[in-house]
């Protein structure tokens, strides 16, 4: 079995591939990641930039991230799916957004960061009704 990380956008116009093992896997709850993803936190697989490649047209957006340094988020130019980041404070890494992985079951967070900014959007409360499929 290959340990390559592969994924794509919603429409399939952009595919990416990263050879080798992940450097780390995490969930980030900073407000920047919340706004970029539209969710309570962003699951991220960190890989070596030297081992990462993609095919297709992307749209890059650079903003000051949670680190206080500029970071670029890359999305599909066609469907807008948020795919991967290239933080300028760490040019040797790429942050793959795990929801776009071909096999998201490979994602296993090693830590969670910016928990001080975590809020109700991330709730997994046992008292809330949960459905394995669409809610009735």
TrEMBL record:
<comment type="similarity">
    <text>Belongs to the Gfa family.</text>
</comment>
<dbReference type="InterPro" id="IPR006913">
    <property type="entry name" value="CENP-V/GFA"/>
</dbReference>
<keyword id="KW-0479">Metal-binding</keyword>
<protein>
    <recommendedName>
        <fullName>CENP-V/GFA domain-containing protein</fullName>
    </recommendedName>
</protein>
<dbReference type="InterPro" id="IPR011057">
    <property type="entry name" value="Mss4-like_sf"/>
</dbReference>
<feature type="domain" description="CENP-V/GFA">
    <location>
        <begin position="5"/>
        <end position="132"/>
    </location>
</feature>
<keyword id="KW-0862">Zinc</keyword>
<dbReference type="Pfam" id="PF04828">
    <property type="entry name" value="GFA"/>
</dbReference>
<keyword id="KW-0456">Lyase</keyword>
């Amino acid at each position: 079995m290959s340990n390559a990380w592969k994924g794509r956008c919603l429409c399939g116009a952009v595919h990416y591939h990263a050879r080798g093992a992940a450097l780390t896997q995490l969930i980030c709850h900073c407000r920047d990641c919340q706004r970029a993803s539209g969710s309570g936190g962003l699951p991220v697989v960190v890989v070596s930039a030297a081992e990462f490649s993609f095919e297709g047209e992307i749209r890059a957006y650079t903003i000051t991230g949670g680190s206080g340094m500029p970071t670029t988020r890359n999305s599909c130019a066609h469907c807008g799916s948020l795919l991967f980041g290239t933080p300028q404070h760490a040019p040797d890494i790429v942050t793959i957004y795990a929801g776009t992985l071909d096999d998201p079951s490979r994602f296993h967070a090693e830590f969670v960061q910016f928990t001080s900014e975590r809020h109700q959007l991330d709730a997994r409360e046992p008292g809330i009704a949960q459905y394995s499929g669409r809610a009735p």
